[in-house]
Specification:
Strand content: 15-25%
Strand order of the largest sheet: 3-4-2-1-5-6-7
Radius of gyration: 20 Å
Structural class: alpha/beta
Distance between the termini: 22 Å
Bound molecules: NADP nicotinamide-adenine-dinucleotide phosphate
Order of helices and strands: EHEEEEHEEHEHHEEHEHEEH
Helix content: 25-40%
Number of helices: 8
Number of strands: 13
Amino acid sequence: MKGYKVAIVGATGMVGQEFIKVLEQRDFPIESIEMLASDRSAGKKLFFCHQEIEVKETTPESFKDIDIALFSAGAEVSRYFSPIAAQSGAVVVDNSSAFRMDSKVPLVVPEINPEDIKKRTGIIANPNCSTIQTVVALYPLHKVNPIKRIIVTSFQAVSGTGLAAVGELTTQAKQVLNGQATTPHVYPHQIAFNVLPEIDVFLDNAYTKEEWKMVEETRKIMHADDIAISATCARVPVFIGHSEAINVEFSQAMSPDEARRILAQAPGVKLLDDPAISLYPQPWSAAGTDEVFVGRIRRDASHLNGLVMWVVADNIRKGAALNTIQIAEEMIKRDWLHSGGQK
Ligand SMILES: NC(=O)c1ccc[n+]([C@@H]2O[C@H](COP(=O)([O-])OP(=O)(O)OC[C@H]3O[C@@H](n4cnc5c(N)ncnc54)[C@H](OP(=O)(O)O)[C@@H]3O)[C@@H](O)[C@H]2O)c1
């Protein structure tokens, strides 16, 4: 099997660390791997398949002779380095929001729109974590009975903000339990034992950017510009695993049993739906797993054609690292890595 020369940009971060784990676990065909981060981490050591690898500062020269560059170091870093990496001949799969809504850049969830990879111009975008789990759960239903409207409320884990936020929740939880005062640094308010209805910046339309990403990205991935979508995103004091309450209106009525039957066969989905034994998805048990878990499927009492459901996934795996690596695997499987787009 051919091995690829891979670079991870943001290798020391929350998602970067998961890239390493997922590449190892899935036995990704690797000839060589570069661990890249900022100058702060240069010289640190990371392990890949029991081999110690030194972290290097990301520079324009980092991408010479790289086949696949997996980016997860924030939008600013991606905006600067991704085009350089693509021009150097690497295929970039970018986890940041920098290029997601660029009409020339495919935004891909392999279970849904793998064919879009072919349109690549050197960069492929990985969607926002909350969007990925929404579309993996809804698209199989949409194919059978087109969706007209989605109302989604997310309960998002602090790991979605990166390593510093995980540290902040840990510190604050101890402080609160010890009766001490907390000082927020990452979030605008205390996150321990609290819920914050603010993820990313507020926009002129009074939604947050995270909420608007869910609206725009869902339509782009599903190729469904006419679906009406409204999202409310809240940060909750959970370490890993985003949860979503989703109300969905179809073109025609769909029974909960039919939805369960479809979702039981859907790629990447696992049904956990037996209220009699309190079986439903939970972030605690989704952490460290690959599936999008769906449960609490019931008729929407407010609309004849509506269903309600509860959807949970590990935001660092399917929401970020796993989906990114699945995109790279899809390119390899279809022999698209060195064809199409600009190389
Ligand atoms: N966490 C999630 O659930 C999630 C989901 C989807 C997408 N994402 C996206 O993934 C990206 C990273 O998220 P994260 O959670 O991994 O954040 P993180 O834990 O804060 O890690 C950030 C990483 O970026 C690196 N970095 C920062 N500035 C850099 C620079 N100038 N040049 C090169 N590398 C630089 C950091 O390196 P140093 O260690 O040297 O500072 C670190 O490796 C963000 O764009 C985020 O939106 C995250």
